[in-house]
Amino acid sequence: MKTRALVRTAGRYGGFVLLAVVILFPLSWVVLSSFKEPSEIFAYPPTIFPRKFILTNYAVVFGSTEMVLYLKNTVIVAVLSVALCLLIAAPAAYGFSYYRFKMKYTLLIAMLGIQLIPGVVNIIPYYIMMSKIGLLNTLSGLILIFASIRIPFSIWILKAHFDTIPSSLSDSARIDGCSGVRILWNIILPLSLPGLGAAGFLTLLFSWGQFLLPLVVASSRETMLVSVGLYSFFGAEGDVYFHHLSAACVIASIPLVAGYLLAQRGFVSGLTRGAVK
Description:
Helix content: over 70%
Mean pLDDT: 84
Strand content: under 5%
Order of helices and strands: HHHHHHHHHHHHHH
Number of helices: 14
Number of domains: 2
CATH architecture of the largest domain: Orthogonal Bundle
Number of strands: 0
Structural class: mainly alpha
CATH class of the largest domain: Mainly Alpha
Radius of gyration: 23 Å
CATH superfamily of the largest domain: MetI-like
């Protein structure tokens, strides 16, 4: 029995190690390539670690490209998309969780079904709408699009979180004369910070990593996001500057990785709380 348990444990952890290697190897290769000279990237046999660590690639990315502008645009769009999404999703989730009305569950299923529609299907309608209202090639147009796409999913996450809060708290507040808005603001939201963090981070991740939508709706240099800006490291004749591209990818990933590491515990709690209910 002990031998079998030991074999199962060894196999389990061996599988974890293999999975970690498969996932982390491409990421590690990009990070290490950002410190290599161009000739070493295509050297044969290939080298995993740079023979000499250099920071020239990062200096070129920051000094000779529009990377700072791309990051600034992306931060503005991502942060404001999260704010707008939560501003609309939180009251909606509160209504679905604490009020009874006709077609309540039908609307919930319909919102979930909307998330199953491939995003590429809506690119042309988004382009036409932004052109009609004068928001084409603007950050405001991207904010509206990203927030509207993530609102249904955020409502589902927040509703599951609100359902775990005892209804006696809101009932007591109503007896004391609190309105629905005050109950949401003073009671429900402070108790739902992990859920808000999870919904907000997923919206941030979605906004940060979008490529096709920003490429079509806001492709001008002044409104270009970092995901589209990375495409500029591909030369006009098919040349790819892998050493600069690797450095740019690392720079673009650092804010998200740092944010996740700082809020990891609350993020996981926000996703799992309410799962049993």
